[in-house]
Design a protein that fits this description.
- This protein is an alpha+beta fold and 81 residues long.
- It has one domain: Glutaredoxin, CATH 3.40.30.10.
- A 4-stranded mixed β-sheet has the order 2-1-3-4.
- Helix 1 packs across helix 3.
């Protein structure tokens, strides 16, 4: 599973990455994490507000920071495709 956090490296982006890593770890999901700071790449996902979460190239949400428990639910759903 590839998990990307899109954003300019702000505090909210870092918190979202931290929460995503913790969620994957707690679920025992093997994942590769990437920070995407390039504005053109961010725009290619159709994101207008950051931070944003992308799982396996699918935009999950943008413009907010989500807690560990909600990310765990998202990852469970995406892993069960």
């Amino acid at each position: 599973m590839v998990i990307k956090v899109l954003g300019g490296g702000c505090a909210n982006c870092k918190k979202l990455m931290e929460n995503a890593k913790k969620a994957a770890e707690e679920l025992g999901i093997e994942a590769h994490f990437e920070e995407v700071k390039d504005i053109e790449k961010i725009m290619s996902y159709g994101v207008m507000r950051t931070p944003a979460l992308v799982v396996d190239e699918k935009l999950i949400f943008s413009g907010r920071v989500t807690g560990v428990e909600e990310i765990k639910e998202i990852l469970k759903k995406e892993a069960g495709k």
